[in-house]
Amino acid sequence: MNIWWIRRDLRLTDNVALSSALAAGKGVVPVFILDEYLIHSKAEKRLSFLFDGLRRLREDLRNRGSDLIIRLGNPEIEIPTLAAAVNADQVFAEEDFSPYAIRRDAKIQRLLPLRLVQGLVIHPPASVTKPDHSPYTIFTPFSNAWRALPRPSSQLSSPKQLNSLPPLSHGSIPETPAVSSFLAGEAEAINRLNDFLEDALLNYAENRDRLDLDGTSTLSPYLHFGMLSSRMMFNAAIDKMSEAKDYYPLKSINAWINELIWREFYQSVLYHFPNVLKESFKERFRTFQWRESQSDLHAWQEGRTGYPVVDAGMRQLSATGWMHNRVRMITASFLAKDLLINWQEGEHWFMQSLIDGDLAANNGGWQWIAGTGTDAAPYFRIFNPVLQGKKFDPSGVYIRKWIPELERVPLQYLHAPWEMPAEAQRLAGVNIGVDYPNPLIDHATAWKRALSSYQSMR
DNA sequence: TGAAATGTTGGGGCG
DNA sequence: ACGCCCCAACATTTC
């Protein structure tokens, strides 16, 4: 008997850990440990999504004659206990690169034969390095090196039938309210991928930044929990590329592949520089004096900064556990640059709120926008929330959806409602400053303040 | 994966 | 017809 220890690979298709466990012979016991460390996190939506995913995985396993064994506790105790109970020869698991996962796996490796296999990313951090084996810290050379590596092999198919399990308590999955915005599971993930490949991918380069269109894949929650493998996504994109004749689909497919590479870049940064979770990557920013303002932070978190595109994004996040990527950048820039609040406050809020919350990608994104990270946005790159709103939500559909108080505001004023004359406010049925807040801060003033603060860090 | 400030150009109005 | 001015549109520089 071998254990398939499931962590961030909640799928049967293209699963190297599962396939390796099967290939080792004598049957497989699928196990998920509800880590106490994980269970106590405040990320309720992400946990609900995970539990929903576990129920669906259990269903898929039962349909193949197996089941999912769930244990609550510390993996360093639960895995060895289970391994002893089923007399396991080996434990197979997909390698994860967070500092916590590395420590945990190293401890367990001392107790039993834990075989770590690759699957979280297409090219693991140690395989994408400079010729002298040092890690890349800038995206473009990283992506060039990544693209120059051999293409991944084709995906592994889902096993049709699995062995029955030895007598064991199966363990229960906590009941939580479902996350209505995202159904969990491999089947849903594959449906979303196929829909995306047929439709939005073809105009991805032009539409991915548009807030008022469904221009993105919305696959991030599935990718985070491995309900879909990055290799399956990459191979699907490559297949599309061989079909494409026009320049634009090629451009779009490449833009989408680039997003996969960004994800792998930040996994690599976290692997090689785990201190980024605690401090700025750029040393000189470690002494930066951020502003302390609980009231500004709360206004940002709750979507009442008075800047519609910022507030719409923050409300979308609270309501659905997901936010359009362009708006992640806009809201993050507003916190770090306009409010000069420590990006780590934003990082924590996003981790708490996002269904797809991923340590590496989230930290990388925040450090990038704050200008403190690898390959960071230059300090002077400050988003203007009015211009960004006009550019990426030109129809106003996104703002009207998430800020119903502005529903009847004419497009002319929608991105800067404080400019609306009293009569127009009356007609639109909104009193700015009462029904919807005035701007927390004047952007032009904040822009100058951010430039001078950041300039002192050069 | 920025935006503001500043510079340049060219067409049209006008004396 | 000509030169001047205005300014929009675009380009470049700067932060």
Structural features, described:
- The protein has 458 residues and is mainly alpha-helical.
- The chain has 3 domains: 2-120, HUPs (Rossmann fold, 3-Layer(aba) Sandwich); 186-272, Serine Threonine Protein Phosphatase 5, Tetratricopeptide repeat; 283-455, DNA Cyclobutane Dipyrimidine Photolyase, subunit A, domain 3 (Orthogonal Bundle), CATH 1.10.579.
- The protein has helices at 16-23, 36-39, 44-62, 75-85, 99-111, 139-148, 186-198, 204-207, 220-224, 230-243, 247-272, 294-301, 308-320, 325-338, 343-353, 359-370, 385-392, 397-402, 411-414, 422-428, 443-455, and strands spanning 2-6, 28-35, 69-73, 90-94, 114-117.
Order of helical and strand elements: EHEHHEHEHEHHHHHHHHHHHHHHHH
In whole angstroms, how far apart are the ends?
59 Å
Largest sheet: 5 strands, parallel
What fraction, in percent, of the residue positions are helical?
Answer: 40-55%
Q: At the first level of CATH, what is the class of the largest domain?
A: Mainly Alpha
Computed over alpha carbons, the radius of gyration is: 23 Å
Uncertain parts: none
Question: Proportion of β residues?
Answer: 5-15%
The counted number of beta strands is 5
How many domains make up the 3D coordinates? Answer: 3
Structural class: mainly alpha
Report strand order across the widest sheet.
3-2-1-4-5
Q: Say which CATH homologous superfamily of the largest domain is assigned.
A: DNA Cyclobutane Dipyrimidine Photolyase, subunit A, domain 3
Give average pLDDT, whole number.
96
Q: Give the CATH architecture of the largest domain.
A: Orthogonal Bundle
Please name the CATH topology of the largest domain: DNA Cyclobutane Dipyrimidine Photolyase, subunit A, domain 3
Number of helices: 21
Shape: globular
